Amino acid sequence: MANTNPIGDVAIKPSVVKPQLPEMFKVLLLNDDYTPMEFVVETIQRFFNKSREQATQIMLKVHTEGMGVCGVYPQDIAKTKMSQVLTHAKEAQHPLQCVVEPA
Ligand code: TYC
């Protein structure tokens, strides 16, 4: 491109700035035979801001299908939620497992 800048500076190529959405990650709960259903429902309500009805639906899906999505977030938030769930379960001595995977 010709340099049309009267001061003689190098012309700066106009750049197209495309806003990028962050890569999203699912936070999943895994089923087990020991964690009480009530504990799972309360955990989903507390860390994923779900109503009691929504949390119960998610818990029942995990219970019957083996796993279920509690929420979808940017990676740092998803990993924070996973670690909050794991710490909470450990403190209560329940074997509840939580994982993060790309959405
Ligand atoms: N299967 C458990 C029970 O029968 C309940 C449960 C649901 C456990 C979801 C974990 O992520 C889970 N008490």
N-to-C series of helices and strands? EHHEHE
Give the biggest sheet.
3 strands, antiparallel
Which strand order do you get reading across the main beta sheet? 2-1-3
Would you identify the regions where 5 or more consecutive residues have pLDDT less than 50? Answer: 1-7
Number of strands: 3
Explain the layout of strands and helices.
Elements (H helix, E strand, L loop, with lengths): L23 E7 L6 H12 L3 H14 L1 E8 H17 L5 E6 L1
Antiparallel strand pairs: 1-2, 1-3
Bound molecules: L-tyrosinamide (TYC).
The site of L-tyrosinamide has 13 residues, from strand 1, helix 1 and helix 2.
Task: Give an overview of the whole structure.
This protein has helices at 37-48, 52-65, 75-91; strands at 24-30, 67-74, 97-102. The protein starts with 23 loop residues before the first strand and ends with a strand. Mean pLDDT is 90; it is low at 1-7. The chain has a 3-stranded antiparallel sheet. Helix 1 packs across helix 2. The protein has 3 helices and 3 strands; from the N terminus they run E-H-H-E-H-E. Bound molecules: L-tyrosinamide.
Key attributes of the depicted protein:
three-stranded antiparallel sheet; elongated; binds L-tyrosinamide; 103 residues
